[in-house]
Amino acid sequence: MAGDDARPGWAVEALDELLDPVVVAHPVHDGARIADFVLDYANPAARAWGAAPGVQVDAGLGLRRAPRFSAYVEAYSSGRQVSLSAVPSRLRSEPVRFVDLRITRVADRLVLTWRDVTDRVQAEQAAAAAEARFEAVLENHPDPSLLARPVLDDADDPVDLRVWFVNRAARQWGGQPGLLLREPMVALGADELFEAYLEVARGGPPVALDGVHLAEPDGARVVDVRAARVAGAIVATWRDSTAKHRAEQALVESEARFRMAFDDAPVGMAIADVAPGGRYVQVNAAFAAMLGRTPDEMVGHLGAEFTHPDDVELDSATLRRFVEGERAPFQREKRMLHADGSVVWVRKSSAPAAVHGHPTYVITHVQDITERRAVEAELERRALHDPLTGLANRSLLLDHLGVLARGLDRAGGHLAVLYLDLDRFKDINDTLGHAAGDEVLREVARRIGAVLRADATAARLAGDEFVVATRVSDDLAAVRIAERLHAAVLEPLRVSGRELVVRPSIGVAVSDDGATQAEELLRHADVAMYHAKHHSSEPWALYDDELHAIAVNRLAIEEDLRAGLARARFRLLYQPIRDLDSGRVVSAEALLRLEHPQHGTLTPAAFLDVAEDSRLILPIGAWVLDEAARQLALWRRRRPDLTVSVNVSPRQVHHLVLRDQVVHAAQAADVDPAGLQLEITERVLLGAGDDVLAELLGVTGAGCGLAIDDFGTGYSSLAYLTRFPVSEVKIDRAFVAGLGGRGRDTAVAEAILGLAGSLGLGAVAEGVETSEQLEALRALGCPRAQGFHLGRPMSAEDLGALLD
């Protein structure tokens, strides 16, 4: 060691008095890096120790070879104290010793102090070895076992247990419920076990708990548990005693089962005498509570006293069957009376109980099904009523029609059905939205209901179609009801801030006798409604023989149309459209015909209304487009500039299928859609909404032209030209007929041609029958025309001959 003059100028005497070893060293730098620390001072305790941890204590000796040298550098560089626990220290052949080392920078020196903890470390190692041997013993123990250590609070009192070992048997068992290795045992939630273990951890005696119930994933099990404190730890072991405890409890449970099932059961139960007519002997609380009573208020009384009068007889019949020897349980639903007078629906399951072989008692289970019956009633109501208006639906209407028809045998009179349809209701949906339309339907339903008698039935079948079924004395009485319904519905109503007037068309059908079928009466009323909407001067029409004949004829036409589709009886004729300057055929209008096996060739005038109403116009219209496109493809091999005009129906447009039909037809025929010109009437556009506009834009977007047929005969023609994607107008034959004679027709035709020219639209004059009309159109500058004078409708072959 160096002399005193080599020591730093500190209070060395104080360091010399310390019991723990202390050494002081200074750093040796290699550039900016600390390469070593050289000892300057060691106190007597350090010199007695003989070395700093891992190196001999000699003045001037470096610490670079000491274990954990990097910790010295860290403490010096950071200025923070570094603590190292259980650092091994060994010099030459001496046994290894362990120290807790503290490293601190003081000014420009490094101060090391340590304490010998060899005894502590060796004791911990011995304890760990003992624990390992103990765990090895427990590992092979046949009963599930665990080891746990107490978790202490700030006052060193055990408040929880942490498991660190479970043996093989416990792992095979699956552990106790919620018990995971090294998880706090409080997670168990098993209060009985946890409190017992915790009491042992606090120094209590060993515990023995038998019959502890554990909830396991595969079912509840019963165990017998033993727990004791060993060397500060808790040793617990348990054994499955489920079978034993179940056997012990079987007798107790069987004795308590009836008492628990009866007195404490949530389901109502009652025991009644058989012979005296069902007097209650015993009633449980659940049954009494259903009826707003106590068991004492019911015992000794007859069941009939608490039963709805209409259901008493069936209960009596059941008791008689049991007295006569029937043993089969009997179930039924019945009404009972609550103490407040309300009806309680219950489901009863009754069976006789015999004493000495004779039925003496009836044991009854009672379940309150009032809520279920209410739900069933609501579901039934929804199944039989329109959800929007609350009126009857078709099923309930037909049922009520049957009831009314059967009642005619007793009360006399006739059965009347009134079929209401709201005119132009679609316009309300298209302009104001479906929410406004729904509000209108609800108000109409309310007004219909206000007009009718209580025994009449009002129903909503679909959309804006309503039906009323009632009993009347004669046809006139039915007509009077129609007039009242019309007046009620016609009253203005306010919807979405607007005042609307909804006009109904009403068809009336009255049965000749009670034998008339409900469905047939509905059809008759529907036919009458259609007549009222389209052909009657009155807002209502009464079904009679004339309407019957019309209906039969319409049905026959519909059958002919279906047969025409199925048997390929439709064909197309083509009327040429000529350029008036050259006389050349530049286009052709496709005209539909039906080849009837009895009536010959039929024009659309004979069947178009029926096709529209039956919706057969949709497949017919699709066929027309397909056939016209196919023929156009053939003609365009010779005349690439030729076009074909096709008339389309309102239903095709409003059902938003037109674009798809056009695209399909063009693709199937492999022809440019620009060769197709679709003709629609102004009636199609009347009241058309944004959906129709989008459909027509889709048609023109696909390449097709769009023409307004019979232009000038409808309403708001100018508005159509600006709103819809029209490329051509066709001057109606009514204006062409007067050319050369009536000055007004000439002025109208001239105005239409001028308007078309200013808007960049094409124009075609229809119905040219004379040379005078033709010359007048040429004089007016009309570019194209068609009519009998220029060519009658003809077959595709004949028109093809005109193309050469």
Brief overview:
By secondary structure, the protein is α+β, with helices and mostly antiparallel strands. It is built from 28 helices and 33 strands. Helix 13 runs antiparallel to helix 14 (434-451) and helix 14 (434-451) packs across helix 15.
What is the topological layout?
Layout: H1 12-16, E1 22-30, E2 33-42, H2 44-49, E3 51-52, E4 55-56, H3 69-78, E5 82-89, E6 97-106, E7 109-116, H4 118-139, E8 145-152, E9 158-166, H5 168-173, H6 191-201, E10 207-216, E11 219-230, E12 233-240, H7 242-263, E13 268-273, E14 280-283, H8 285-290, H9 295-298, H10 312-323, E15 330-337, E16 343-355, E17 358-368, H11 370-384, H12 394-411, E18 414-422, H13 425-432, H14 434-451, E19 457-462, E20 465-472, H15 475-490, E21 493-495, E22 498-500, E23 504-510, H16 518-534, E24 540-542, H17 545-566, E25 570-579, E26 585-596, E27 600-602, H18 608-614, H19 617-635, E28 643-647, H20 650-654, H21 658-669, E29 676-681, H22 682-685, H23 690-701, E30 705-711, H24 717-723, E31 728-731, H25 733-737, H26 743-758, E32 762-765, H27 771-780, E33 784-785, H28 796-802
Parallel strand pairs: 23-24, 26-28, 28-29, 29-30, 30-31, 31-32, 32-33
Antiparallel strand pairs: 1-2, 1-7, 3-4, 5-6, 6-7, 8-9, 8-12, 10-11, 11-12, 13-14, 13-17, 15-16, 16-17, 18-20, 18-23, 19-20, 21-22, 25-26, 25-33, 26-27
Helix pairs in contact: 13-14, 14-15, 19-21, 21-23
